[in-house]
Amino acid sequence: MKAAIECRKKLNDGIDPKLDIERQKQFKLITFDDCAQKFLEKKRNKIKTTYIYERVYNNEIESHLGAIGIDRIHSYDIDNVIQRVLHSERPSVANQVLLFITRVFKIATKYKLITCNIAQKFSQSEDAGGADKKRQRFLDEHEIEDAFSIFREHQHKIPTASYIALVLLLILGTRKMELLSAKWQQVDLKRQTFKLLDTATKTQASLIVPIPDLAVPLFQDLKLLSGNSEYLFPKRKANKKPHIASETLNDAVASLFGVAYGKRKPRPNCMANVDVEHFTIHDLRRTFRTLLSKIGTRREVA
């Protein structure tokens, strides 16, 4: 009876008791991680490349800010995270870290967890990695030979499937996840074609990529390694995706350069022994494009 009276009183005051109950059921945003997951959830509904944001958060931010209440984070905490990345000589990643933190704080202000976005006080030019420069890194032929020889020497870091993936990225010129998320139904070894689906490409356009003769045995080896999986590169560990995780190749190659992400401890720079400067996975695609020009491929084709 008392509850009914209270309910009627709320209705008379313009308060919907049912709405209040629904609000109580909503997940509470308390920590930085709560807000970060909310941000990532919104991104997943809009773009296909959310893994880029996830990689930055998981590798560079989560262990330092994730468990802290969003209203307890100080400007010094933000600066410390950025400086850690800058000290590892990765200015572009420092910019990504600042951008991610700023957007998470924007979520927090939107839901009135905090009154102002303290991350907006930081600037890319003064506090992070500076103006983004268009990356020009590509590997010359001796670097390709030396880098892949190091890959073969460190099979604990670059197992066979990962090695094949790196070779295919270099000779097919696809984007990383166009290859790693591919299914066997996209591969026709008789016609020697690899179809990129419009749902998997950045440009949302399908494309038929020819498979060179020398690459056919690599696909045949992959078929054996993948077993009964419908994916060329099935997942190896617990992973939300059914295929290999987006950061797997990045982490493996970075570790051989003595670079470690997140809580991992850096190992010796194996590439220093063969005088190969640091490169990223996407630099293999740029190398592919550069080599096309070198052999005289027309610009519009390349």
Within the CATH hierarchy, at the fold level, what is the topology of the largest domain?
hpI Integrase, Chain A
Helix proportion of residues, in percent? 40-55%
Give the domain tally.
2
Tell me the name of the CATH homologous superfamily of the largest domain.
Answer: Intergrase catalytic core
What would you call the quaternary organization? single chain
- Strand adjacency order, main sheet: 1-2-3
What does this structure look like?
With 302 residues, the chain is mostly helical. The chain has two domains: 97 residues, DNA polymerase, domain 1 (Orthogonal Bundle); 154 residues, hpI Integrase, Chain A (Orthogonal Bundle), CATH 1.10.443. The protein has 13 helices and three strands. A three-stranded antiparallel β-sheet has the order 1-2-3, with no helix packed on it. The longest helix has 20 residues. It is globular and about 80 Å long. 25% of the residues are buried.
